Amino acid sequence: MIRVLVADDHAVVRAGIVALLAGEHGIEVIGEAADGEQAVQLALALRPDVVVMDVRMPGLTGDAATARIRERTDDVRVLVLTTYESDASILSAIEAGASGYLVKAAPAEELIAGVRSVAAGEVALSPAIAAQLVARVREPAPPVLTPRETEVLRLVAEGLSNREIGARLFVGEATVKTHLLRAFEKLGVNDRTRAVTLAMERGLL
């Protein structure tokens, strides 16, 4: 029997999740929590196999509650069930120690399967969430500029010419041009203005 605690601050939503899970063979709902603090207290007191946890709750958030539960127990697993599916929300929940992340719009079968998977020690992710994470992992790494390339671009941003930059850094104009060309290549641009703009957009300057 999989023992489940449901944590959601919306009473109607919580009741719906409870009713869905309670009607499944091999699953028993042993408690309900209306906020993060209550979820932590009940998880520590009742020791469910799985906590179905909402993210946005008053007071202690679902992520923070998940982290506390995971810090204090080895056997209570958390399955996040939320309407939010941004990269930041997903990564925050996983970093907090959640074993799964499903969206509330998912089919009932997906939630039930997620509870069973998490209880078995597996990871449960909605197909859409899994696709998002894969896409994020496949994103090219941001370019890394050397300190001197960054310095040269910063002086370009101040409006200095190559000759003026060389004088400021005590290097030849050709050396300045070399640093700029390397920065252009890393940023995938062909001119000074675009290089400075893109470097600023990416937080490199």
UniProtKB/TrEMBL annotation:
Keyword Transcription regulation among UniProt keywords: yes
Residues of the Response regulatory domain: 3-119
Modified-residue entries (4-aspartylphosphate), positions: 54
Highest taxon of source: Bacteria
Pfam families xrefs: GerE, Response_reg
Positions of the HTH luxR-type domain: 138-203
Alphabetically ordered keywords of this record: DNA-binding, Phosphoprotein, Transcription, Transcription regulation
Name by which UniProt lists this protein: Response regulator transcription factor
Organism: Microcella humidisoli
